[in-house]
Every structure is written in structure tokens, then in C-alpha cells.
Write the C-alpha cells for this entry.
Amino acid sequence: MSKSLFQVFKTDVSGIALPEKFTFPFYYEPHELSVITAKALQDYLETQTDFVHNFGLDTSQDGLAIGKMFGVLVVQNQNKELGYLWAFSGKLAEQNHHPLFVPTVFDMLQENSYFKKEEAILNQYNHQIEKLENDSDFLLAKKQLETTKAQANKELEEQKTLIKRNKKLRAEKRKTLSIDDANQLNKESQDEGILLKKMSQYWNYTIESATEAVAIFANQINKLKEERRQKSATLQQKLFTEYAFLNQYKELKSLGEIFNGNPPAGAGECAAPKLLHYAFQHQLKPIAMAEFWWGQSPKSEVRKHGQFYPACTGKCEPILAHMLQGIPLEENPFNTNPAAGKELKIVFEDEFLLLVNKPAEFLSVPGKKITDSVQTRMKSKYPNAMIVHRLDMSTSGLLLIGKTPEIYKKLQAQFIKRKVSKRYVALLDGLLEEENGVIDLPLRVDLDNRPNQIVCYEHGKPAQTKWEVIERRNNKTLLYFYPITGRTHQLRVHAAHPLGLNTPIVGDDLYGTKSNRLHLHAESITFTHPISDEIMTISVETDF
């Protein structure tokens, strides 16, 4: 074991009780030991001279700013000594290896490795293909083919136009000509058709010859591309087989096995798998773990400098399911019913519809594991009831419910046509300078980290939010949100994202900092009653 990677605590931590169970990686409050370890790493990052990486924290630093996720793992060695390990996700300063950080599980950049050798062969294919594609004879042949096709099209179209024009002229002449003269006109028509046929044959032959000249090169290029594709596929499968992760039982499981042959890009490069793999390699017992973001946020995601974050679900969850096998974990909160013991208050009801005030941490509709929700409770009371719209589990406030499918359809049509107005109240974790505005940031799900949403101008759905400040207090801002669209997590991302308000909602455990609750409440809704046509506005105050 490299002693430089197992680091002992610089301060006395003997008075801190060890956690009874290991950190649940996908939702956690960092243990005190993890916080101390993370602080030590952050202090190192602020003062180190071992590498140069632009995190986007120093405006005078040149180059592309790239924030980075770091991970810490508190461990015990075989002598029961307590220490810790550090890791970074992906590469740092374009390298896999740095002092004090655990290495990658499978180093594709290692000199003379199988991957590097095969990569060199693929690069030779790339060079050969590029050389052929830029060969002067090939370029000349392609240009000659294009010129020949253009000239053929031009001359054939001219001949067709001439035939059409002469046909009209002959039709006029036939009205006054003798039979002999008419026969002459017929011969002219036949001759023109024969000429067009011969021209077509000539140009088809000429184009075929020009195409063959191009094909000599194109066939070589396609052959090389197919060989490259097969080589690349073989290399990828070998990589998926050799890229394997340990668990506490010393059992290895490859990327290919974990993801059934099709792992997402970057799988295995996150900090958590690196830390655990190194620990199991060197007989270190995992005690607690945490990850934090360091530097500038990516343009699409919401990442706050120095903030702790859970492991990603898309890439890490399948890997960690293997690596943490047999290790007692802290309780998975996603398996606990957050609505247990909570009352669902009805704030308006008639024979056609009703509105409820959904508490925070209460599902609108059944989840994969938890069925208790507004929908299930309402159906137990009104079997035909249907919830018209949804709120995030963590958001409190008004939900509209139709008592019958017919009423549901009429209410839903108002949402589709944007005839319904909603107002939310939110407390933001910071002070806004402006008084109001409109946020326009398209959103889509983060495929590697569901259910988080990211800003995406290429594939995202339009999302717009109006906002206005109510008041500022205790270094926080109370405001109204008026969603124009209704995307998942729209208000939360629009508040937290650097291109939005850059100020997360208080208690946002996905895009900000967790507290007693998410301070976001659907306070008011205005809609047209589907039977009476009365414009109705229902409001309910928040508890924050």
C-alpha cells in the first residue's frame, strides 16, 4: 500500500464517534469525519502547486474553466488506524495520476498499455483515411464526376426543352401542311428523340467512367473505415471486460457485466468507484464517504462551489450496487414513505372538483416504491377522481383534482391551452439585486443523474418563468414565481442555475443546500370552473 495515499488525520478525531453504517451514496448528510476530510482536501486545493488546473475560481487564469467533483473516503487500515483517501472524477489537469489522489480503476492512458497500442493502430487508420480523402487524384476525380454530372444534366435538359418547343411548332404547322410535309415533320420528331436517347447513353457511359475513377479511392476508404470500426468495437469490448471493480469480498465485476455490455460514457471514472476500489485493493475498511464540487459550475448543470453532492445515479448506481455488496448502509430515504402521518387538507370542494393543500415531502402520484400519494388518497375517497396536474414531492401547495374523468378532461384542457394561472411563493438563499424579470432556460432530464434536470438548448423543452420580489430579509429573498410553462423542477433550476437567478431555493436538496424543507409553495391557482364557467381563484398561505 502506498503510504502517501492513506493519510492520517492532522487533528485529533478520537472523540468523534464512527458511523454505525456506511454512507448511503445517493442521499446523505456528510458525517463529521467526512466534513473534516473534505476541508483538508479543499485547503490543499487552495494552496497546492503539484498541478495547474483552471477551476474557474481565478479570473486571471488562462484556459478553459472546468469545475471538478472530488470525493473523500474515511477508512480504517488493518491496524485499526483511522485515515482517509482523496479522489477526483474523470481527469485532473489532463492527467489520471496526481500525488495524494487514488488512481483510476483502469488507466487507459498508461504508456505501452494494450489500449494505447490499439489506439495507435486506430490512429494509423485515421491517418491513412485522411491521406486518401485528401489525395489530389481523388479530389480531381470527385470534381470531374461533379462536372460531368452537371454538364450531362445541362445538355440533356436543353435537348428536352428543344424537343418540347419543336413539338409545339410542328403541331401548328400540321394544321395547314400536306401529307408529305407532315411525314417530314414526323421524321424530324423521331430524329430528335433518337438524338436524346444517344445523348443519354453517351452521358451515362461518361458518368459511369467518372464514377469508377472515384470508386477506386472510395472503396479503399470504406474498406479502411470498416476495418477501423471493427478494431474499435473489439477494443471497446476488451475495455469493458478488463475495466473491473472490486468489492469487499475481492470479487471483480466488469463494466460489461454491470451494464450488460453497454455502459454509459464515463462510467467508472467518478470519484466514488475509484475510492472504494483502492480501499478494497489495499485492505482498507470504508467508514464514510462524501463528494463535493470545486470550481465553476458547468453550463448545463447546477453545481455550487464547495457544495456536497450525492453520487450520480446513471453511471454510479449500478457500479456501487456491486462494490457495496454486503456493507451495511445508512437507510435509503427513497424507501421510506415521506407522507406517513401527514394530513391532506381539502381547501375547496364541490360536487365536480376539489383542491387540496399538499404538504411538502408528499408525492402527487404513486412512485416506483412508495404508493402513498395525493392520487391514491383521493381515489380511496372518490374512486373516479383524477389529479389534473402535479407538484414535486418536496413542493407544498395547491393541487386541482377532478372528481370524474369528464371533469378531469375539461380541467386538463385549460392547462394544455395555458388558461390556468398559478403563483408560487419561494424563499431564496441569498439577496437578489433586481426586482422582477423573466427566466427563459430550456430544460431536459439529466440522463446520467435522474431525476435532476439540466439546461439544454439543443434537446431541452422550452421553459419560462416570471418572478417578482416580495421582500428581502435575513440575507434571503422572498419572491413570487409565475410559471409560464410547467416543466419538472422548472422553478428550482431557474432559481439555482447561473443563467437564471443563480440563487437556489432554501432547502433545495438537489440544486442547493438541504434544510428542514424546500421553501417553495404553490400558493394560488386561477381557473375556469368546468360547469359554471365561473373564474375561480383559490389561495392558501405557506408556513414559511
Summary: The first helix runs from residue 32 to 47. The radius of gyration is 34 Å. The chain has a mean pLDDT of 93. The CA atoms of residues 258 and 318 lie 6 Å apart.
